[in-house]
């Protein structure tokens, strides 16, 4: 488990990085936190001949509020998303989901853009981005383009990014006042690899009625999955035991899980239902509607 | 083989400069170029945490970082925690609580927990276990590590300082 | 315990909680594990090209491109290696055994994914791995079999063509009169238990460094092993060298657990290449190789039948054991270890008098399997305790009552059980009763609703009463017909010229704490502080011959050898001290680093002065008449066949009704390993053993597909317990010292894992019992458990 040789560049600006991407094309891979890419390189399952290290581009690491959006640079560390007051205020779902990503030492190095670009189907941030309706700003030789989260994740480890593109910015809509967020996930044991998770942000009116529901499941398909049926069942309802049970059960029809060595497809489906129920109960408890 | 690059780092307060291939992992650089073999390789894919070091003030997996990425940076390894023969409060608590058996994973735990105790001086057991879950130990069953962290946290609070 | 003529009486170290001496270097990053051993100049790095197929014929190997790579010194194929290293074997010519030979690298056929086919020697490990990618092998893929039951079928692909079938080992026995008793019992229950294949996953993978010693034409092999002396025997035998030309030394070893007690091909390759190329050769295993090639364990199927009466008394037990042995049997334990250890451990603490077993070790196209903490005991104990619970459920009796009726009772010791295990002392009923009290068994049952569902979790409690056969002596290995396992161990203890004590033993340490526990024993024998005792071992170049570290042997056999040698030394020290003090040796007491005359403390001499005299470092002659210069003693110790510890484990679990995820919420152990050397370390062994058992019970599993491809070769695919999985044990000791071995010690290394499998499996079985779910296979992964819940509901 030693990496194959590669050529290494450490650009200091985004522009320089994009120019290197254009120059080296499909041979090149941008290196963000490296927490997913470097294991593959060590195992020689990935053998890029050029690595473009983004860790020396300070301009790619930022967090700011802008026109009702929480805007993150691709190199913003996951640990910062977890601890930032800006994030907690603007998008509490992100702050709630982050502690579930890897471990603190992984989040110290792992980045927002890295996790989203890697597109592991069971990763937390892609699920959160999908639930929140985030926008991905891709940059490449032809400039920038905006890809909605719904069109960003294609399949396992495959996104809408072209080989010469990289994720340059992520824009998360700020949570409306009165909304509540929760995240839950389950693995085959405690503290290890997550298998299935659900991210939820529910807008509630003053009567505690759901005016808008946004849920996405991770690990229950080849990409993160929006739980549209759950959302439909919930909208207009007060979150209480019966409505939650019905809404969570509806998730079973939204997901298309695959079997792998960790779990059967059936279990992943039931786990998605269970996690949907768990997040909705947590929100109901917080809102006092249950 | 690709062109070597010079890597200059400060490890535990001492400057090192070596010419290495870009593909050299930071953990190999520390162990084989700097001779600091206290940092261990347990999996080389980022799961076990045995290679955890502190890079520019935060704990990272040195098996998931290339040496060239550390150019110009400050590193602390397990060898840099204590002065000479002495032990830090955390190391001393590991000793008294029998929080290590084979000792192979221990440096990674110490590096991660030193950061943790700085950030979380008064942790509860749940927080401790959550933090510990990022490092794997096959010998101890973790209970004594939990006790060691509790003891170290208490002593550090009483001393009003960090390790 | 006291030994006749014992004059120690000053012992204060054994039995005390003492933090470990070895910690001080390990905590400061100053340990020396295998990859930390300084590399001599010119060290070449060895890498092994491994088969991607479970079963294939090697047509051709193209090495030219790899050889041409800068920094590559040599590429050597299996055929070339065969000229230096003949195929080696773990088994012997005897009835029921078939010999399977393993070439150090495959010559014409590969038999599992990971089997080596060629090696590269290069300037560094990066280049060596580059070169592996440039060796091109043309394979002819052949049908493979990975499952033990498939491999038993008549038309199964054969793993070793020269053998008639895949059964490497078979055996069995039946007590006289079994059939009549079995038939006459009131009831018979049958069950099939399937036990998952697991991996040891020591945090430090394997590795070795072979250093060629030009002047002696010899090789020093540094290697992360549990058994340096056994390796030297094997290496010298297979390379045809005298043992004087092979030194095997274990540095600090980052976890053993069994898989590191074997001779591996890489060790033979490194030694042979070091001599061939006259330079140091280093091989460091990576985690992928560890999962592919380090010997694995378990993967058993048990068919059990229990005959019992209306009152729950077990009359007879029958078991058939099928063990997946993998592609080869391993030196020095062979393929008989797991199949025969199962039946041997099955009766455990129970007193039934009729037992029948058949067992087989079956070759498949998978990684070889072998010893892992507890060997078969955790699995077969799960089967036995599982049957106890089934009997209780069937008869409507409490599980505790069924066990109580069958346990060996306090007044029955010494007891010889149905498979001739000699239980000299024990506390089976006492441990169970105390554990039940600690967990408040009655309160637990009373508080639980009939459907056992509380807060979305099914609550269950599991009880396991277990024995731990360990500390085996020569009698055990000779009974099994293992020629290359001596069974005894040796200690050499000396009072050094400066008055400090140094001891070397035939043990190597993988975290057990020998530097502390052996020092405690010696400190009591010699009346010194453990700070003045240095323990070394694990190096055939400077430690005496013996068997090694496995099977909970440390305290019993190592401790016994250390006790005997230091006892002998004590008597010699007394003679020197008596001479200096002009007293009789019988009146000398050793205490606090001094020898003094009993009852006259002011008549004393320091051990420093005794040592100076004994080593001739005095102005005048101080040698007592009839004594020789020097103060040292060497002694071997061969204990009885086994020293048998016991324990009761109780696990309380919550099974999430929606996901099937099992949480171990509480875990109680009452443990009896005889006389305890260091309670802190014994507790550590049990907590760690339970953690490994918890992993196996709930989620660890090495998975192969039907074609023999391994699916779980990383720590993301094969998961081990984290700090969030394992509760802190509530633990107490009862001490029933062994009276048939020198120290009164019994082993403590394996009991934790032996108890955890049955306790947790029984707890999950109990939680789901109202649903009628049958818990008879491991691991109890969430999807499996959810299936049990839903299957029962359907």
Task: Please give the structural blueprint.
The complex is a heterotrimer of chains A (290), B (163) and C (794).
Chain A: E1 7-9, H1 14-24, E2 28-31, H2 37-42, E3 50-53, E4 63-66, E5 69-72, H3 78-83, H4 85-90, H5 92-97, H6 104-109, H7 112-118, H8 124-132, E6 135-140, E7 143-148, H9 149-152, E8 153-155, E9 158-159, E10 166-173, E11 179-187, E12 194-204, E13 210-218, E14 225-226, H10 228-234, H11 241-254, H12 265-287
Parallel strand pairs in A: 1-3, 2-3
Antiparallel strand pairs in A: 4-5, 5-10, 6-7, 6-10, 8-9, 11-12, 12-13, 13-14
Helix pairs in contact in A: 10-11, 11-12
Chain B: E1 5-11, E2 14-20, H1 26-33, E3 52-55, E4 58-61, E5 74-76, H2 89-96, H3 106-119, H4 125-132, H5 143-159
Parallel strand pairs in B: 1-5
Antiparallel strand pairs in B: 1-2, 3-4, 3-5
Chain C: H1 23-26, E1 44-50, E2 56-62, H2 64-68, E3 72-77, H3 78-82, E4 88-89, E5 101-102, E6 109-110, E7 116-122, H4 125-132, E8 136-141, H5 148-151, E9 167-174, H6 178-184, E10 187-198, E11 207-213, E12 218-223, H7 228-239, E13 246-249, H8 265-277, E14 281-284, H9 287-293, E15 297-308, E16 314-326, H10 337-345, E17 354-363, H11 377-395, H12 399-406, E18 415-416, E19 422-423, H13 428-439, H14 441-447, E20 453-454, E21 457-470, H15 474-479, E22 489-495, E23 501-505, H16 514-526, E24 533-537, H17 554-581, E25 588-591, E26 594-597, E27 600-606, H18 607-614, E28 632-637, E29 643-656, E30 662-672, H19 679-698, E31 730-733, H20 751-767, H21 782-793
Parallel strand pairs in C: 1-14, 12-13, 16-17, 23-24, 30-31
Antiparallel strand pairs in C: 1-7, 2-6, 2-8, 3-7, 4-5, 9-17, 10-15, 11-12, 11-14, 15-16, 18-19, 20-21, 21-29, 22-23, 22-28, 25-26, 26-27, 29-30
Helix pairs in contact in C: 10-11, 11-12, 11-20, 13-14, 16-17, 17-18, 19-20
Structural features:
heterotrimer; A: 290 residues; alpha+beta; Uridine Diphospho-n-acetylenolpyruvylglucosamine Reductase, domain 2; Uridine Diphospho-n-acetylenolpyruvylglucosamine Reductase, domain 3; Enolase-like, domain 1; 3 domains; five-stranded antiparallel β-sheet; 12 helices; 14 strands; B: 163 residues; DNA polymerase, domain 1; five-stranded mixed β-sheet; 34% helix
């Amino acid at each position: 488990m030693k990496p194959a040789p590669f050529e290494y560049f450490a650009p200091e600006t985004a522009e320089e990085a994009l120019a290197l991407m254009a120059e080296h094309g499909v041979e090149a891979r941008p290196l963000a936190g490296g927490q997913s890419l470097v294991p593959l390189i060590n195992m020689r399952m990935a053998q890029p001949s050029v690595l473009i290290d983004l860790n020396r581009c300070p301009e790619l690491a930022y967090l700011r509020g802008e026109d009702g959006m929480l805007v993150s640079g691709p190199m913003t560390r996951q640990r910062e998303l977890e601890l930032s007051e800006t994030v907690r205020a603007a998008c509490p779902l992100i702050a709630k989901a982050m502690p579930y990503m890897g471990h603190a030492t992984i989040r110290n190095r792992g980045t927002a853009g890295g996790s989203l670009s890697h597109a592991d189907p069971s990763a937390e941030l892609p699920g959160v981005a999908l639930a929140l309706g985030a926008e991905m700003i891709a940059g490449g030789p032809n400039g920038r383009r905006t890809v909605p989260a719904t069109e960003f994740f294609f399949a396992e480890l495959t996104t809408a990014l072209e080989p010469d593109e990289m994720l340059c910015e992520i824009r998360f809509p700020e949570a409306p006042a009165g909304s509540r967020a929760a995240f839950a996930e389950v693995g085959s044991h405690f503290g290890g690899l997550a298998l299935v998770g659900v991210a939820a942000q529910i807008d509630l009116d003053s009567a505690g009625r759901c005016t808008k529901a946004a849920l996405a499941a991770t690990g229950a398909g080849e990409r993160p999955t929006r739980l549209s049926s759950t959302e439909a069942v919930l909208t207009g309802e007060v979150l209480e035991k019966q409505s939650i049970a019905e809404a969570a059960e509806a998730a079973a029809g939204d997901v298309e899980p695959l079997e792998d060595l960790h779990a059967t497809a059936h279990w992943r489906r039931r786990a998605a239902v269970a996690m949907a129920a768990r997040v909705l109960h947590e929100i109901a408890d917080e809102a006092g509607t249950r | 083989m690709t062109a070597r690059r010079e890597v200059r780092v400060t490890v535990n307060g001492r400057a090192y400069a070596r010419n290495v291939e870009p593909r050299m992992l930071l953990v190999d650089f520390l162990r084989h170029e700097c001779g600091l073999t206290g940092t261990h390789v347990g999996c080389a894919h980022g799961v076990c945490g045995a290679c955890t070091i502190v890079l520019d003030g935060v704990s990272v997996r040195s098996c998931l970082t290339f040496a060239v990425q550390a150019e110009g940076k400050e590193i602390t390894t397990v060898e840099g925690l204590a002065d000479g023969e002495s032990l830090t409060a955390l190391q001393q608590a590991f000793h008294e609580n029998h929080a290590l058996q084979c000792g192979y994973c221990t440096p990674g735990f110490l590096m991660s927990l030193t950061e943790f105790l700085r950030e979380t001086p008064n942790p509860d057991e749940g927080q401790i276990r959550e933090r510990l879950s990022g490092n794997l130990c096959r010998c101890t069953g973790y209970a004594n590590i939990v006790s060691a962290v509790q003891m170290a946290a208490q002593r550090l609070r009483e001393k009003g300082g960090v390790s | 315990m006291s030994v006749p003529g014992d004059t120690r009486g000053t012992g204060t170290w054994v039995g005390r909680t003492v933090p470990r001496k070895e910690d001080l270097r390990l905590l400061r990053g100053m340990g020396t594990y295998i990859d930390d051993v300084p590399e001599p100049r010119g060290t070449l790095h060895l890498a092994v090209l491994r088969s991607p197929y479970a079963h294939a014929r090697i047509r051709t190997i193209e090495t030219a491109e790899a050889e041409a790579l800068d920094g590559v010194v040599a590429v050597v194929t299996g055929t070339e290696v065969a000229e230096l290293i003949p195929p080696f074997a773990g088994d012997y010519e005897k009835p029921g055994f078939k010999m399977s030979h393993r070439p150090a690298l495959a010559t014409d056929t590969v038999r599992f994914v990971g089997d080596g086919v060629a090696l590269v020697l290069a300037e560094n490990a990066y280049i060596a791995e580059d070169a592996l990618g440039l060796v091109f092998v043309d394979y002819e893929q052949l049908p493979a079999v990975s499952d033990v039951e498939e491999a038993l079928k008549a038309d199964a692909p054969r793993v070793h063509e020269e053998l008639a079938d895949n059964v490497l080992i078979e055996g069995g026995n039946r007590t006289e009169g079994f059939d009549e008793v079995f038939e006459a019992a009131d009831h018979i229950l049958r069950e099939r238990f399937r036990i998952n294949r697991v991996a040891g996953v020591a945090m430090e993978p394997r590795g070795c460094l072979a250093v060629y010693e030009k002047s002696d034409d010899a090789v020093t092999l540094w290697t992360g092993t549990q058994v340096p002396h056994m390796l030297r025997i094997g290496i010298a035998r297979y390379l045809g060298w005298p043992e004087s030309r092979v030194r095997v030394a274990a540095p600090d070893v980052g976890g053993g657990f069994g898989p590191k007690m074997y001779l591996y091909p890489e060790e033979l390759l490194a030694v042979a290449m070091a001599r061939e190329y006259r330079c140091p050769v280093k091989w460091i295993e990576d985690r992928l190789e560890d999962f592919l090639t380090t010997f694995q364990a378990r993967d058993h199927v048990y068919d059990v039948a229990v005959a019992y009466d209306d009152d729950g008394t077990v009359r007879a037990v029958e078991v058939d054991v099928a063990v997946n042995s993998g592609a080869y049997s391993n030196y020095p334990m062979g393929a008989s270890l797991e199949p025969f250890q199962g039946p041997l451990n099955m009766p455990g603490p129970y007193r039934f008098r009729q037992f029948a077993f058949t067992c087989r070790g079956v070759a498949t196209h998978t990684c070889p399997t072998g010893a892992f903490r507890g060997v078969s005991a955790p699995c077969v104990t799960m089967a036995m305790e599982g049957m106890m619970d089934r009997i209780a459920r069937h008869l409507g009796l409490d599980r505790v009552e069924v066990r109580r009726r069958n346990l060996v009772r306090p007044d029955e010791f010494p007891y010889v059980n149905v498979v001739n295990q000699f239980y000299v002392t024990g506390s089976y009923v006492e441990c169970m009763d105390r554990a039940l009290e600690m967990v408040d068994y009655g309160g637990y049952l009373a508080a639980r609703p009939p459907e056992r569902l509380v807060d979305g979790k099914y609550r269950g409690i599991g009880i396991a009463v277990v024995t731990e056969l360990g500390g085996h002596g020569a009698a055990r290995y000779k009974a099994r017909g293992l020629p290359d396992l001596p069974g005894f161990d040796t200690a050499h203890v000396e009072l050094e010229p400066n008055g400090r004590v140094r001891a070397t033993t035939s043990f190597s340490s993988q975290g057990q704490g020998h530097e502390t526990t052996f020092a405690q024993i010696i400190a009591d024998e010699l009346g010194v502080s453990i700070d003045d005792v240095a323990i070394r071992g694990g190096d055939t170049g400077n430690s005496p011959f013996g068997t090694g570290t496995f099977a909970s042997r440390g305290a019993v056999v190592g401790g016994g050898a250390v006790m005997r040698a230091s006892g002998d030394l004590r008597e010699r020290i007394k003679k020197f001290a008596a001479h200096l003090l002009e007293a009789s040796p019988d009146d000398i007491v050793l205490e606090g680093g001094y020898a003094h005359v009993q009852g006259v403390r002011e008549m004393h001499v320091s051990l420093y002065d005794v040592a100076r005299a004994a080593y001739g470092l005095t102005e005048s002659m101080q040698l007592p008449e009839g004594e020789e210069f020097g103060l040292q003693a060497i002694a071997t110790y061969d204990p009885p066949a086994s020293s048998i510890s016991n324990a009761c484990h109780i696990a309380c679990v919550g099974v999430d009704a929606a996901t099937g995820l099992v949480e171990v919420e509480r875990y109680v152990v009452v443990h009896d390993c005889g006389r305890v050397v260091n309670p802190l370390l014994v507790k550590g062994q049990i907590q760690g053993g339970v953690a490994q058992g918890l992993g196996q019970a709930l989620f660890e599993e090495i998975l192969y597909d039907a074609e023999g491809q391994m699916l779980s070769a990383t720590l993301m695919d094969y998961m081990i317990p984290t700090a969030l999985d394992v509760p802190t044990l509530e633990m107490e000791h009862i001490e029933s010292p062994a009276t048939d071995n020198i120290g009164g010690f019994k082993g403590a290394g394996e009991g934790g894992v032996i108890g955890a499998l049955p306790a947790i499996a029984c707890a999950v079985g109990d939680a789901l019992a109202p649903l009628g779910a049958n818990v008879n296979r491991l691991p109890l992964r969430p999807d499996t458990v959810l299936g049990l819940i839903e299957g029962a509901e359907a």
